[in-house]
Amino acid sequence: MRIVGIFLLLVLGLTAQAQTNQDVSNLVDGNDFPNPVFISPDPPKPIKGWEMTTVLEEKVLQGEYPGDIIKFRFKGTAIGILVYSDNTSGIIEYSIDGQPWFEQDVYSDNEKPELKSYTLDKDLKNRKHTLQIRVIEKKNPESSGSSIALRSFYFNKE
């Protein structure tokens, strides 16, 4: 496995700019994310295996190749992702702070992309964290692909 790029957004004491082109806060669990901060995954330089593209007229970070890892740094108590899911979506693995890797299947049986939220952890200590995400070869048997279209990271900033 190789880490081909680091996507760092230091939102530690800074005011993060929420995405305004669509109200997405209703997609996340209000109990775990009472005041979520949404960050677009727009890296300052290209990351091998990941590319900026457009889904339904919104910028997304598309991952196609198994093993290529992106990282996101944040400070907060919970973390999630918004992805466009369809019948070509795959399975990702994610790790927080170097802990074991967990799988998240983002497949949907829809032919058209649908925005979905996935809470990755909601019991974090209020400190700096690093989220790593990678596409894996394993896929849902119903999926015709293994890609991920990452629209946003979201986290609880306290």
SSE inventory with pairings:
Blueprint: E1 36-39, E2 50-55, E3 58-63, E4 69-76, E5 79-85, E6 91-96, E7 102-105, E8 114-121, E9 127-135, E10 148-156
Antiparallel strand pairs: 1-10, 2-3, 3-10, 4-9, 5-8, 5-10, 6-7, 6-9
Signal peptide: 1-18
Organism: Draconibacterium halophilum
Protein name: Carbohydrate esterase 2 N-terminal domain-containing protein
List keywords for this structure.
single chain; 158 residues; mainly beta; 4-stranded antiparallel beta sheet; 42% strand; globular; disordered N terminus; signal; Carbohydrate esterase 2 N-terminal domain-containing protein
Short description:
The protein has 158 residues and is mostly beta strands. Helix content is 0%, strand content 42%.
What does this entry look like structurally?
The chain has about 160 residues and is mostly beta strands. It is built from no helices and 10 strands. The chain has a single domain, classed as Galactose-binding domain-like (Jelly Rolls). Helices cover about 0% and strands about 40% of the residues. The strands form 2 sheets. Strands 1, 2, 3, 5, 8 and 10 form a 6-stranded antiparallel β-sheet that branches. Strand 6 and strand 7 form a beta hairpin. The radius of gyration is 15 Å and the shape is globular.
Q: Mind telling me the CATH superfamily name? A: Galactose-binding domain-like
Mean pLDDT: 85
The backbone outline, from C-alpha atoms, is: globular
Number of domains: 1
Beta-strand residue fraction: 35-45%
| Terminal-residue CA separation | 34 Å
Described by its quaternary structure, the protein is single chain
The low-pLDDT segments are: 1-22
Total count of strands: 10
What share of residues is helical?
Answer: under 10%
Pattern of helices and strands? EEEEEEEEEE
CATH top level is: Mainly Beta
Q: What is the makeup of the main sheet?
A: 6 strands, antiparallel
CATH topology: Jelly Rolls
Rg, nearest Å: 15 Å
The chain-level structural class is mainly beta
Assign the CATH architecture.
Answer: Sandwich
- If helices are DSSP runs of H or I spanning 4 or more residues, what is the number of helices? 0
Keywords: Signal
InterPro entries: CE2_N (IPR040794)
Pfam families: CE2_N (PF17996)
Protein name: Carbohydrate esterase 2 N-terminal domain-containing protein
